[in-house]
Give the backbone structure.
Amino acid sequence: MNDFSPAEFLRREVFPRLDAVQANLLDGFDPKQRTGSGSYPLTCPACKAKEAFYFPFSGFINCPRKKECGKSTSIWDAMLLSGYDHGEIFSTLCEAARVEPPKRDQAGAQAKREGAAEIRIGKAIWQITQKMASENSAALKSFQDARGYSPEHMAAMRLGYYTTPQEVLSRLTALGFTKDDAVACGYVETDESGALLPGLSSRVIGYWPHPDGEDRLWGRIPVGTGDKQVKKYKFSVSLKKEIPYLFSQRKAGVLVCVEGTMDAWALQLSEIWGCAVGGASINGSQALYLQNRGVAEVAHMVDGDQAGWNGAITSIRNCESLGIVVSIIPLGAGMDDADALLRSGQSGMLHTLVGKRMNAGQYLALMLRSLYNVAAPDVQAVNRIHAVADCLTPTSRIMFDKHAALLGVRVDLRLEAGRLFGQLLRAGMGLDEAISNVRRRTGHVISIDKEEPNA
């Protein structure tokens, strides 16, 4: 527990907060302006070709030249090639990421206990649950066998284990943290009297990044699907899903959002940049987070049912209104999700699905056609699609107009608003009331101005 790994510290604490190009740490590799996918093109440190790319908040420069190179160079090694010495790289990276480097402790075991509280509680819970994973390897092995994961998969996911809240609290207390500290981060749960609740007991643990810098925990029972008493998945009560899970583990290509954490890992283990949003849609906070980090396009993988359609609509509205082009990957009825495809050895199908993703504009047009292809169209749903279409980026708007026209469902809403306005006036409604009525029903504002004749 007291062992310190500089590489692990950089991976968990520094790289997710670092844009090495913006910090001028990679100037020797001639970085260019960020592309639409969010990466910086630059020179490959290994083969010197000007085809490599670096995603901010990741720890590697990648070369796409699979046959001639295809290597990933760590930021550490890249800085060595740029003239930095080993002794200064660690402190330079921490300073650039605005992360306090850990203090060396050379005063013995007593000093270690006294200084233990200097570590952050998020780091402490990671150490504790990782230690518990090694102490309860049988539970992790059951999880691995039940899901068909390889040892390489398990090593990549680096999942922890949560025994009981009593033991977790005891270990946090030994590191200088209080019960209130643990409750505030959801690492233990209490009832109204302050007694500890089972919470995440006996679950495999993952770590969801949080805006306050301290990871929150999610847990899954090692085997089975759970029941009403013991749910399959459980999340920390204090978890705010404002940062998509696994977003920092960037890979080349479009970002693909899914609901579940294991589906996100399935994408990542299939070499697809995948992240979990923890719900049926990309919420507003997540969309703003993606926009602030230069994401220009996002794909959302949804189920082909009513909940999936509603989630897709919400994701389109939240992201497209912020300038992020959205694509939808609809899963057909009865089709396996990402996790099931990986476990059945069909990770190639995931790449096929991503390649066939559908632009939001086309998706909305197809939904509009399906709504009109019934005896009694759902007017509320039709109006919702048109309202979302008004939020589309120029790229998606062109696709919507094109496919809506091809499918015969393109409606001139301005003309319809004008017709409604005329009919209301003919029915005897007053001018101001008719203008208000049209605005309420169509979203269009009708104004009547008098142009003064030239003097």
Notes: Residues 414-455 form one domain. The CA atoms of residues 62 and 72 lie 4 Å apart. The first strand starts at residue 40 and ends at 42. Residues 106-117 have pLDDT under 50 and may be disordered.
